[in-house]
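Problem 12. The chain below contains 419 residues. Write out its predicted structure in token notation.
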Amino acid sequence: MATNDRKIAQTHDDVLDEIADALDIPPSKFEEAKRRYEAIGDWLDRDESSLAAYDPAISPQGSFLLGTVTRPLTETEEYDVDLVCLLKASKTEFTQKSLKEAVGHEVGLYARAQNMKNPPEEGRRCWTLHYADGAQFHMDILPALPDASRYQVVLKAHGYGTLASDPALTSQAIAITDRTLPQYTQVTDDWPQSNPMGYAAWFRGRMTVQLTERKMAFAKRERIKASVDEIPDYKVKTPLQRAIQLLKRHRDCMFADDGEHKPISIIITTLAAHAYNEEATISETLQSILTGMAAFIEYRGGEAWVANPVNPAENFADKWAEAPVKRESFQRWLEQARRDFALYLRVSRFDAMPDELKEHLGADLVERTLAAVIPPAVAGPAGPAIVKGAATDDSDGRVAAAISDIQRRGSQSKPWAKS
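Solution.
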């Protein structure tokens, strides 16, 4: 849909895709962040590095790894680039404290060598590098050690034997540092654990069909001869990733003045991925997610539980019990998102976004996007993306049936069947 290389929107999905694209980190900014964290990795692994013997490796985690990065609300805010610094060492060679300090020492040397204005800032678990040259991002570097064996033992102890036996989801688990723990300075096997690569594998598995189709289309469009596996994931975006970016932005705008209580991204991402059924369009994806995501909130002993898909004993919603207002905020956000997107998707004019949704996606960004992709000659009715009445009921029934099927089969959405 291009005229003189200009995209022309003709449907609700075209508009939503363009808004999501505007919310995404620009390719140049992504490449810049990638170059910088790779430079840190090269520094840590240089011959003179005090960590060189441990073959240090830097890799992304979080939204950068999942492809769900969302542009900050304002130009003064920064992208948060989450990284893991993995050393090939054992917990007999380091305490949490000594690992944290060893990584911090080299990161500090890197900052000085690069003439960075600010030294690394130590957090509870990470070292944060702030860039002062207009980069508009900072990097949180998490020191870590390989810990797959203990991770699998812990899973089996909790009754998740099937999950523990799946190397795609557990073989890259890590031990991390946390300076608030009493064993922080002790030589012990009892370290906090994390599994960002396993989570990413689960997330990727929720959109395998669409990811593959989009990579094939990308190769054809760019006229390149490459297998699907040779095309980096970040070169394409699936409807699931786009929908999550839109939902996160909606959340950010709605809670712009209440950051303490806004729903956290990992809960939105996890529930959205559970509810996704390989829909091919953003409108269908939003319908499935917003209709079905709450069904994947479990209740264990009366406590709301959003399980980590690769460690179901971990509750992403653990703060809801401590602060019920956080749970209420999530429910309020979900209800608002359902109303806002339904108002848009059930109107005929794809170029006329309701004020409520426009406000919760950022009025300026929406107006700029609409002006760029909808020339006056194109504007007009195109039919609703979601039809009211019987069609909506059928869609709701399809979503409910899909959720039931996922819960029955378990292995795709919930890979933690007990054994």
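Discussion. Confidence is low (pLDDT under 50) at residues 389-396, 406-411. Students who got a different answer should revisit the alignment rule from Section 12.3.
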